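Re: Re: ligand-bound prediction request (bumping)

Still looking for help on this. To restate: I need the protein modeled with pyridoxal-5'-phosphate bound, output as structure tokens. Inputs repeated here so nobody has to scroll up.
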Amino acid sequence: MNGTQKSSTPAAQTALSHFRRGRSAGLLDRAHGFSAMLEELKSQGAYPTQYRLELLGPIDHEITVRDPFTKEPKRLTCFDSNSYLGLHLHPRVVLAARRVLDEAGYGTPSAQLLAGNNRWLHELEETVAQYHSREAALVFPSGYSANIGILTALLRKNDFAARDRFCHASIHDGCRFSGARGGTFAHRDPQALSRFLATNTGNGGSLVVTDGVFSMHGSVAPLPGLRSAADKAGALLMVDEAHATGVLGRTGRGTEEHFGMPGKIDVLMGTFSKSAGSVGGYVAGSRVLIDYLRFFARAAVFTASLPSCVCAGITEAFRVMDAEPQLRERLFSNKDRLVTALKDLGVSPISADTPIISIVVGSQETLLLAGRDLYVEGIRCGSVSYPAVPPDSCLLRVTVNARHTDDELDRTAEAIARIAARHNFPSRPFSSASSDEQEVM
Ligand SMILES: Cc1ncc(COP(=O)(O)O)c(C=O)c1O
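Reply:
Sorry for the wait, this slipped through. Here it is.
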């Protein structure tokens, strides 16, 4: 079986959405059905080139993987890393982590309210709070758990939470797990948000939640409109700055800086898994908010601290973000180069504002074929399907970073244009304020 073989799998059989809903008698019935679908996909050669490819070295602008067919090493240009500035490989960051690795070991096996509270964690929390000009910050083991922890601590059943339809899965889950009333509003639409907030007749608190930069589409949330809608309804505003921190704004401070609105986010959540190049999540805000979350965000209370060497590496990464603005400049000139080349070749990304350059492909079957063709061309992008996006709006997610070379960017634009023509990618621009209320994530 080689990577260029044509698939004959009908769309229904390859759709992950098939397994999300529906009933089955036994708990494992769905798993057995899914397993059969997976085997079918694997036998056709498309799946192994996209999901669970084995990396043989670091994630960088170029990666080496084990080819699933020949088992030999294969080099790919990689557009599937969230390390926008390449800081996970930066010598200063690696050295800072290594020093603490030698001093404190590779783990911090206790909760942060107990013995897991150490000077490297303190230093990280202070660094993050200062970076965002907030009074305090609290660290979580991941960005996912940060959103779950914050939302389930803040919201109760009689509260109301309004979240953008295309916000990250962890926000959807956090709102659902909290039991609060509310739901989703149309994507990046402050007027729809206002209308939705007006339906709230309860007497609890209200919260508006959005991504700052949308992780799948790369577009920026309309912060001014969302802030004023929240103010009119007396709601707090929470923004997930996972893809904005270190990227957006003149100094990389994120969505607030992009719009010239310092301090306008009430609950500022972020991750260390993107620009900081590591793992972990955080929330920054007033001391009152953070002191409360420190004791009531169960995802931070009932779990071990981040390893000290990781805390030290991240702290250094935040320092480098400020010390080396040329990294962000290179990131944006790379983004501009790829967007311009794609547009010149007739391919329109959903958004041209951020380094997440997503292209609508259509069905999941087309996505698998397009991703396989890219692999054959020596390129790795993100293949995004349901439940991250609606089943008929699958995406190629091309994430640019500061380490890509001009040649890599130009070759990739040409390859994508060829594959878009071959598979007839839809020319329609993505409908951002879609009336389709099908739930994603
Ligand atoms: C917007 C957004 N929020 C939260 C997360 C979760 O972050 P982590 O990977 O650090 O758990 C992600 C990760 O992809 C994300 O894109």
